[in-house]
Amino acid sequence: MASIDTQQFNSRIRLRHIQCFVAVAQEQHLRKAAERLHLSQPAVSKTLAELEELMGTRLMERGRFGARLTRDGQSFLAHALSVLEALEGARRAMLDEATGTLEVVRVGALPTVAPDLLPLALAEFRHVWPEAKVDIQIAANAPLLDKLRSGEVDFVLGRMADPEAMVGLSFELLYVEPLVAVAAAGHPLFQEADAGLHRILEFPLIVSTRGTVPRHNTESFLRSRGLDLPSNCLETLSVSVARLVAIRSDSVWFTPMGAVREDLAQGLLRRLPLVTGGTEEPVGLLHRSEAQPGRCAASLMKILRETAELRRGSGGAWTLV
Q: Which of 98, 198, 227, 251 lies 20 to 30 Å (CA to CA) from residue 154?
């Protein structure tokens, strides 16, 4: 990156430069960004060119297939999002002050993590902030991180991603959890003295969808024992669908422990005696590195930390690295 004339940069940089850059980075297309900003495409292109001149470097590669961030662009995006987040936080704070209302807390959560940690934390949060609104958005890890970068959620209860996907984001470990294989309490496997993995695979399997960490861990676990995932699996991101199928049929469900902890405690499901060491995955809080969460979001994050600490202290299956 070329050296930047700080005085010139400070005197010429405008909010429209940052808004335009963020819109193109998120849409990955000049035309779509122009439509979002209610501007013409040439106006967007000119604004980006002005910003790159001020920065002294190319922030995006534009072509017939869209716009892609350069390495400098990825670095600048994290700071640009922080600027917009700070302005939005100030706007919300002033609105809250004027109307006496509280902010909306927007949380992204993995489907296998949400049922384990969020219910307890939300009950405590409701006691502390009875007037606050909470919006829970459930998705796989990659879409959740996209939502976090774009400011659609305040923080994510999820997993750390590859380094390139973590630019501008921070991860705070809460616990690690193993992959487990579970079945209905009355499943025939529990009547057999020595039901090994080959025998388990004779029954229908329920697994997470492709591209998710639980799915990767399931396939890796089987491959390490010379086996492949059967082709007739039920693949789903929905914990509610998976648990009901497991409870009401002879299917075996491979899932992170957090998704079934309550059902195991109630005796609706039982854990099959498989040694799944090496499948443990860290779960934690992800947030934008340079952004400060609002009062209510910060409070819910604190309660989630405390809830995780209580679970670890109660002798559950959570462990720390």
A: 98
Task: Provide φ and ψ at 173, rounded to 5°.
Answer: -65, 135
Range of the domain at 219: 179-279
- CA-wise closest residue to 92 among 84, 83, 106, 102: 102
Contact call for residues 159 and 208 (beta carbons, < 8 A): no
In a domain, 318, yes or no: no
pLDDT tens for 21-75 read 988 988 888 888 888 888 899 999 999 999 998 888 999 998 777 888 898 988 8
The model scores a pTM over 0.85: no
* DSSP states along 66-116: EEEE-HHHHHHHHHHHHHHHHHHHHHHHHHHHHH-PPPEEEEEE-TTTHHH
Residues in the chain: 321
Helix H or strand E encompassing 242: helix 239-248
Assign residue 257 the CATH number of its domain: 3.40.190.10
